[in-house]
Design brief:
Membrane topology: Multi-pass membrane protein
InterPro entries: DctM (IPR010656), TRAP_DctM (IPR004681)
Structural class: mainly alpha
Helix content: over 70%
Strand content: under 5%
Order of helices and strands: HHHHHHHHHHHHHHHHHHHHHHH
Number of strands: 0
Family: Belongs to the TRAP transporter large permease family.
Keywords: Cell inner membrane, Cell membrane, Membrane, Transmembrane, Transmembrane helix, Transport
GO molecular function: transmembrane transporter activity
Length: 429
């Protein structure tokens, strides 16, 4: 136990000195293995774990989904989706903000990254809201919370990483995220509606013009068909997530080439961006596996399972504690770091309590999504502040009512698992 405490202290020190979470976990895990087994066996475990984890076929889905997002963003397709949504509902009071949420859903289904979605919204939707006299507080907050939808709505990179770390079906996780994602979007739109009718932060937008809305929607139709094809292929059992990701890359490339919106330089930048993001994620997964192996050799996980089996606490209480811990972690860490640190311990406990792994994955994902909005880290708020120039304090004030709705949605998912499990139960495979 003393060795385990020392390893945790080492991990905390490395993170305090801003070492990337992947390297901090890998180094701490290796030092623990060396102390537990000796240097030579520890090196053997390090070699085996790193190779087995990084060569997993399911990881193929990560670079493909990221590349799909990079291509669509570089091809200006995402900006056109925002404009199309604004042309339909931007004329009502608070309509531009609600259109931003609607566009965020489309963007989430295309990019899979919350920070990328927030940056795109900040560049496209925020200036439009400011031009129509929206308050900076509301406009920047909507941009920030809209970006979090990419964490839950498929094809979410966070869901892929959770599936890899816990060996849970990524296809079922994707399908399970659809209803919670749409429920979250409806909740955010409701908050905007209340703010628009009780304050002067959200005036009406430009008058509705049917011809303009139809013309702008033409650019969204290919994206909508691509989303349906990718998600439908997974839901119908026609393709695995990796195969569906390949379909998405091919479809996105066809769209941007047909619309002549992708230059050769932008294509190179898209590929480079996808490679950088993939290397980061695979490194996190592999180093997390090293740390998980250390926990297995020290029997920490087994001891926790034995404690759960003998404790008087109810499964509901244990789940509430885990969710609370994840929420606190979200105040200080990004979502991938939380998954890599928490899942080696939290997932076995959840399985010991006989919780559904798909449902647990959506709950965890929703919890880390909330962490993207909570200070002091609040990564999406920082991205929005950097893109818009709105002070962080103002953005966090604007986020507060949306945080309340996020908590309500999380409680609904906890109390009614069927919200999450309804669609996966009808999957072909």
């Amino acid at each position: 136990m003393l060795t385990f405490i020392a390893i945790l202290f080492l991990l905390a020190i490395l993170m305090a000195f801003r070492m990337p979470i992947a390297f901090a976990m890998g180094l701490a895990g290796f030092v623990g293995l060396a102390a537990q087994l000796g240097m030579r066996p520890a090196l053997s475990v390090l070699e085996r774990v790193f190779f087995d984890t990084s060569s997993s076929f399911i990881l193929v889905a990560i670079p493909l989904f990221i590349l799909m997002a990079e291509l669509l963003t570089a091809g200006d397709v995402t900006r056109r989706a925002i404009i199309a949504c604004q042309s339909w509902i931007g004329h009502v009071k608070g309509g531009l903000a609600m259109a931003t949420v609607a566009a965020s859903v489309i963007l989430a289904a295309l990019v899979g990254s919350s920070t990328a979605s927030t940056a795109a919204m900040a560049a496209s939707a925020f200036p439009e809201m400011r031009n129509h006299n929206y308050s900076d507080r509301l406009a920047a907050a909507v941009v920030s919370v809209g970006g979090t939808l990419a964490v839950v709505v498929p094809p979410s990179i966070v869901l892929v990483v959770y599936g890899v770390l816990t060996e849970t079906s990524i296809g079922k996780l994707f399908i399970a995220g659809i209803i919670p994602g749409l429920l979250t979007a409806l909740g955010l739109a409701l908050v905007i509606k209340v703010i628009a009718h009780t304050t002067d932060q959200a005036p009406k937008g430009a008058p509705f013009v049917l011809k303009t809305a139809v013309v702008q929607s033409r650019h969204v139709l290919p994206m909508a068909l691509l989303i349906v094809a990718v998600i439908g292929a997974i839901y119908g059992g026609i393709a695995s997530p990796s195969e569906a990701a390949a379909l998405g890359v091919m479809g996105s490339l066809i769209i941007v080439l047909f619309q002549r919106s992708l230059s050769f330089g932008a294509f190179n930048r898209s590929v480079s961006g996808a490679i950088r993001a993939t290397v980061m994620i695979v490194t996190i997964v592999a180093c997390s596996a090293i740390f998980a192996n250390y926990l297995a050799f020290t029997r920490i996980t087994q001891n926790l399972l034995e404690f759960v089996a003998t404790t008087d606490l109810s499964p509901t209480t244990i789940m509430a504690i885990m969710v609370l811990v994840l929420l606190i972690m979200g105040m200080f860490m990004d979502q991938l770091a939380i998954l890599s640190l928490a899942m080696p311990l939290a997932f076995p406990i959840a399985m010991a309590l006989d919780y559904n792994p798909v449902w647990f994955g959506i709950v965890v994902t929703k919890t880390v999504e909330i962490g993207l909005l909570t200070p002091p880290l609040g990564l999406n708020a920082y991205v929005a502040a950097a893109q818009t120039g709105v002070p962080l304090k103002t953005i966090f004030r604007g986020i507060l009512p949306f945080l309340g709705m996020e908590i309500i949605v999380l409680l609904l998912l906890l109390c009614f698992p069927q919200i999450t499990l309804f669609l996966p139960e009808f999957m072909t495979r």
